[in-house]
Amino acid sequence: MDLSDYLGLVRRHWWVVLLLTAVGVAGAAAVTRTLPREYVSSTSVLVQPSGGDANAAGGRTKGEINLDTEAQLVRSTQVAATAAELLRTKADPRDLARGVSVEVPPNTTVLQIKYAARTPELAQAGSHAFAEAYLRSREENAHYDLDTQIKALNAKLKQLSAQLGQVITKLGKLSGDAPNRPTLDSQRTTLQTQINQLNGKLNGLSTTAVSAGRIISDAGLPNRPRKPDLKINLAGGSVLGALLGLLAAALRHRLDRRVRRAGDVWRRADVPVLAEVIGRARPRLDDVFPPYGSGGRIFNRLRNEVVAAIAAVVPPTDDTRGRAVVVTGASRGPSATLVAANLATALARTGSEVVLVGAHQPDLLVGVAPLAGMVGVQPTPGLSDVICGRVALSTALQRAPRTPHLRVLATGATASAAGLLQSQALRDILAHLRTQCDYLIIEAPSTEASADAQSLAGVADAAIVAIELRRTRYPQVADAAEQLRRVGTVLLGSVVVPRLKPFVPTPTPAPTTPPSAALVEDTQHFQRLDDAKLAELDAERSVA
Fold it and tell me: What is the pLDDT of residue 329?
């Protein structure tokens, strides 16, 4: 299949795709209503350096604070436990930590602490609680670091003070000219300097104000849930529904055996397409196509192809013997009638003598045979009347009023025609008609309805299968081709027509004016030429 096949598939089954897409959207909306809501609230915290901060090598910030580490601390068990106390909940701190997410905007020292909950109030309270708990934890850690440093300095001062006291005691016991007195003076000075420095550091730490950070944007009350997202779910449902619709359309296309396109006939039924009557040609069952219309041009090309194909595959054995072509339908319907009438008319327009035989007996699906109305002749008497011996062939054979070179043997009365299409009398009639024309076009019943098409094809030189879109199935086309090939008839190809409406005949008004003198003279001339042979044929059939 190429792109046009897929586009045609969607065009033919668009309602399946549209229906399943709507179902997908409705299903997504229904699922969205049943899913639990998740609201998210965010608190922005400005993180300020404290005594124990240290940035790792390769950190995203150049300052003292490693925000990646701080983001992990927000979700720590210690912060979660403090947040649980602030929320006054007995939930497990680890469960609370699962609802927290932390984002770090680029090139900032800000943490965005987000908390997800089932209600907007819980989301707001949880985000604020984790921000407060993080700041408290950070402040406690900073105070702990300061206290540790102060304790370390006090211990060092105590040690140095003790050493200084010992040095002073030794100096008090020495005389003024003692040799080690300068050394002890130097030690005293050094210890005094160190003690003064430590006292300065201790005073600085004692007066340090700890500021771990502050909330610069408190948590707000979310007005819509983050999950489920209705727009995303509807989009996903529509895409899923459309995919299911395409799969269903492909499955329907795979299971549908009806002919949808003329291009598929050769590919799926191995039958070439000679012509396709396009939809804008508007085929009718009460008249043939005008010669210069779109439908007339289609059958003019078909006429040329049929003449060339018959000359190539069926070489003439007798110059007086006309070429016989059977037109049959692959399925029940008036498609063979449409093709046979227009092909015979197109051949007659070239000046060739053409005889059109209506052997398509009406059935329940076709209704009244429209052949006579299309070419403008009377439906009776016809072929069935001649076979039964009711009328002579010369009487039943009528010349088409609008096409002088076309003579028509209509279907005739159908009540007594059953089973006569396979008789020897029909074969004799067709054989005689072939000697009186250049082309004999036989409108045969469909191959699906009976075996009459096979019998008629056996006495013809070539056959054409009429295919009606959206009614004929590919197995019917293949079966029709196989039936014609089995009797040794050359299958020229097929003619594809759009789906035809049932034929409703209209009463033919009685002629108010006599036929033209030229038509009367032409008809009398034809009858004089054929009277002898037709009388001989009627006599032989009466004896039989």
Answer: 92
Using DSSP's 3-state secondary structure scheme, residue 332 falls into coil
335-387 pLDDT, tens digit each: 999 999 999 999 999 999 999 999 887 654 344 568 888 898 988 888 888 88
Q: How many CA atoms, within 13 angstroms, populate the side-chain half-sphere of residue 184?
A: 19
Q: Which residues pair with 407 in a beta bridge?
A: 355, 399
Dihedral sign, CA of 309, 310, 313, 319?
negative
Nearest to 350 by CA among 394, 316, 302: 302
Q: Strands (DSSP E) along 33-77, which ranges?
A: 39-47
Q: DSSP string of 86-152? A: HHT--S-HHHHHTTEEEE--TTSSEEEEEEEESSHHHHHHHHHHHHHHHHHHHHHHHHHHHHHHHHH
pLDDT digits (tens, 9 = 90+) for 501-515: 765 555 544 444 444
**Token output for 447:** 């191959």
Cα gap 416→361, rounded to integer Å: 11
- Of 92, 415, 26, 54, nearest in space to 240 by CA: 26
Is-contact 212 50, C-beta < 8 A?
A: yes
Q: What is the pLDDT of residues 290-299, one digit of tens each?
A: 988 888 999 9
Q: Are strands 406-409 and 398-399 parallel, antiparallel or unpaired?
A: antiparallel
Nearest to 403 by CA among 338, 346, 360: 346
